[in-house]
Amino acid sequence: MSDELPTDVAKTQLPHRRTRHFRRYDPALILTPQQSTRQSDVIRYACRHLADRQTAIAFLNSYNEQLGGQPLQLALDSGEGLMRVEKLLLGTNVRR
Q: What are φ and ψ of residue 64, in 5° steps?
């Protein structure tokens, strides 16, 4: 007697072997030190000048017509963008 299964039975009854290897997580976006600093600055500034954290997050991630883009992305792109966002927030001071 043989321990081997017929080929048609072997493929359907044996569990599927995983072939995926573990990989290191590779983030899609790596910020420069300057971008990280501007990101933390704009988040802190928005949280100070808007009603609550959820409002600040929504503001930073939404398109703003006055700025012509997303405030968070503008702040990440340049120091000038950060200043434009801060200036806009000064005018919308809606603290709790």
A: -120, 120
- pLDDT at res. 91: 84
Q: What tens digit of pLDDT does each residue of 20-58 get?
A: 566 666 667 788 999 999 999 999 999 999 989 999 999
User: In Å, what is the CA distance from 48 to each residue of 5, 7, 51?
Assistant: 70, 68, 8
Q: Measure Cα distances from 39 to 24, 31, 34, 76, 90 in Å.
A: 25, 9, 9, 6, 17
Q: pTM of the entire structure? A: 0.66
Give alpha helix (H) positions in the chain: 7-13, 33-49, 53-61, 71-77, 79-91
Is there a contact between 56 and 47 (Cβ–Cβ < 8 Å)? yes
| CA terminus-to-terminus distance, the chain | 81
Q: What 3-state class would DSSP assign to 64?
A: strand
